Structure formats: C-alpha cells, structure tokens
Amino acid sequence: MLRLAASSRRGFAQLCAAAAPAATSRLAMASMAERTQIQASILSWGAADAGALGLGTLLPPALQPQSQSSQSSQSQSPRGLDSGSGLPRSLGAEQPAPLFVSTPTRVPGLERYVPYAIAAGWAHSLVAVQNPGLGTFALLGAGLNTSNQIGLIDPETRQRRRQHEAADFISSQDGDQAVPAKAVSDFTFIHRFDDQPVVSMACGRQHSIVATATQVVGFGNNHYGQCGILPFRARQSPDFVHLNLLLTGASRELANTPEMPLRVACGLDLTLILHADVLYASGWGADGQTGLGVDTDVRLLSPIVFEAEDFVGEKVHHFATRADCSYALVSNSNGVHRLFTWGNSEYGQTSLGKKPDKYLKPHVVPGLGAASVKQIAAGGSFAAFLTADGCVHTCGYGPALGRGNHTLESLEIAQLDRALFNFEPVVQLVSGNDYVMALTVTGKLFAWGRGQWGRLGLGHTADAWVPTRVPIEGKVTSVACGVDHTLAIVVDNE
C-alpha cells in the first residue's frame, strides 16, 4: 500500500470510481506530492485456481512453468471438480492454491505503487498503477495467460510474434526474462506507459482492452475479432495479437477530453469503444451483441447507429456490456436522451418486456427515465441501472435481480429498496455475468447474485438474493467484477 496526503483522500475516493468515466484520468494526473500519504490497497476474492487474485499462490501443475511444476508434487483439481474451504489460509508460494477465496484478501507486493484502475475477466486481472517516485504509469497483470490476455509473452512466443510481424511493439522491458506464459499468480509488470496514464480498461473472456489518453491497445484472443483488428497476414489468421492500435484509419493521437471521451468495455468476446461520442463494436456477434444488425462476427471496430422513431442519436454518454447483452445512453441534437439495448434477450435482460432470442440492432428501452440513468450494469441474464438519486433498478432473471428469493424473474424494471443499502446513495454499479457489486457514497460495498467460487466476498459460496454488505475494513473507492472473481481498491486511512 502507499500513503497519500490527507488533503487528497476525498478526491482519491471519487477519482478511483471506475464507473465515473473520467475518474482514472483525473486521478492519474493528480500531482505526485498529493499521492505520497494515502494507504491504497488492492483486495481480491473469488476463484483462485488460475492466479487471477494475484495472491502469489502456487498454480495447478497444468499452468505452472516446468521448473515450478517439477518442484511440487501437489495435485490440484480443475475448477468444478473439487470444493475448497473458501476460507483464507496461508497464501505463500509453498502452499497449493485454494480453489477459491471467499473473503476479501489484501494483494501483496504492491506497496510502493498507487493503484488507480482495475479490470477483471474470466480468469485474469489487470491493475494500473503509478510509481510516485518516478512519476511513471504501469500496467500489471495476473491470472490465466493462455491466449496472452494479460499481455505477458514468454521469450519463445515473443520471437515468433516478431518473425510474423504480429505486434506493433512489445510491452515488457524484461526483453529476455523467462516469464511463464500460461499463467502468473501475482501481479506482474506488463508495460510502462511513462507519462500516459490509463484512462479506461476492460477484460473479456480471453482478451483485454486498455486505453490511455492517446491510444487504445488490445491483446489476447482475437478469434472473433474482439481485439478490433484484422490479422496482419490473412493466410496465417493468428487468433491473438499483442498491443495493437484498434481504431483502424484513425489518428494515433486520439483525443481524450470531456468533449471527446475515450472509454472501453468488454463482453465475453466483444469489445465496445467510445471515442468522440461515437460507440464502436467488434467481436462475437451470434446474439447480435455488436448492435450492427448482423449475427455474424465483426472483425473491425465499426460504429453503432442509434435511431428510433423521431430520434437520431448523436452522442453516447454511457454504455455497458459484460456478457452478450449491451446498453447505451444516447442523446440527440436537441438534448433528448434515450436508453438503448441490443444483443441476447432470452432472459428478458434487455428490459423490453419480452424474451425474444436476440435483438440485432439497438432498441429503445421504455419505462425508465433515460435522462436520470447515470450508470448501467449489463449481466448475462439481467440488467441493473443506477439513477441520479442513487437508487438501483433491475430486471431480468436470477438472484442478481436483488429482490429476494421469491422473485426469480421480472420483465419489468423495478427499484430496489433503499434500506438494502442502509439508505445510502449508490455511486458505482458493476456486474459480473451473474452477480452485482454496488458501492455507496461512504465507500461501503454491497453484493448480490450467484455466490459460486466466493465471488461475492461474503465468506461463503451461497447465492445472495438481496444486496448484502461485503465485510471490508476501509473505504472502497472502486470495484471490478470478472466472471468468478472480484477486485477492489480500498483506502485504509480515509
């Protein structure tokens, strides 16, 4: 952890909120003097078998480098074939990794950095940090790397990529350092951005997208085009690429200002990028999740059109995706707002009051004052909305509705009782595939939904049908949900 000046603590809590689009960039541009006194830490919990929690545990033999695997005779069952205790235990490298950790646990090894942005995927995690002593910004990664989704390339793979011209540049400064490519169980240096802080980042199933003030890069599996670029050589059709410019044909100097925001989000195999008020999509399209009117894969980022009766969208304000359904809040030239949705709808998660298989193009969501929507969380079978009054509204299917075990499905958007959040306004709303995290104005974290693998952080693996307080000491300033694990930034001396 690292201490930040008391005068900047309130700002730190506000600036770390990943759901506020400009949050990370404003924090990153804060003076180094202001960051020397805050105790900021990363906590993680959930599925631990691939190292995504960054706790430095011994990986299962199938994911270990040869040298580590040969030193251990411990056998680890694949996820789903064994039930761990779910309780924190000694997490040193001499111990086999628990399959999951069900209570928030402090990530070691980041004491000299200021973490200011986090992202979580299916079994991998990214953390953006600053080294106040040097004034530089870096990207760290942990977890599964079988498709290069944390951007960590071993020397052999690196040389092959160079020969095939499949990368614009190699990020790691440890050019010849032997680094295990399959997975890493602690947060490992990936790339240094110097004076370019990360302003937005997201993780999908096996890919990641990172945006700085002037560029967007993608790495990991690109089989469906989710990294937003065509293969460098069509005859080779590589399935994954490493740190390539995504907005093909656009200037490398991409503006990131309040007037021209640069933001990213990932579905399972989908990428959405907001630039200059326009939302672009690429990737898996079988459920219409690209919003481009097709149910085929889209291999280059393409602009989504938002039109309805008497409405032509001109500016995208907010957007969200996590699985195969997406949302966007859009305004026209007269400042009228509409909430749009598209993609998979078999559980009613598109909030349109019915359950067709999919919507290939954006449709307007009725019944919720669009202008009041401040954040959106689009899960696998549900959707949740945060309105300007700090209230949470949900629809769809499953315990992530948050309305109690008597309500399994709802095709209508309804508000959750404010008492469930101790009557505190919610300021950040984030979803995994089948669970939700809500952060209140005082830094309290609430979780509900599917509890498998301890992803809710409640000390058990049972489902939570209503918002339940996550036991964390300190003030939570930001949270990121993967599929089976969760990360949070916490200020300890707030």
Automatic annotation (TrEMBL):
Region Disordered, residue ranges: 61-102
GO biological process, one term: positive regulation of mitochondrial translation
UniProt feature, compositional bias: Low complexity: 61-78
Recorded GO CC terms: mitochondrial inner membrane
Pfam families registered for this protein in UniProt: RCC1, RCC1_2
GO molecular function, one term: rRNA binding
Top-level division of the source organism's lineage: Eukaryota
Extent of the RCC repeats: 337-389, 443-492
PANTHER family cross-referenced by the UniProt entry: RCC1-LIKE G EXCHANGING FACTOR-LIKE PROTEIN
Protein known as: Uncharacterized protein
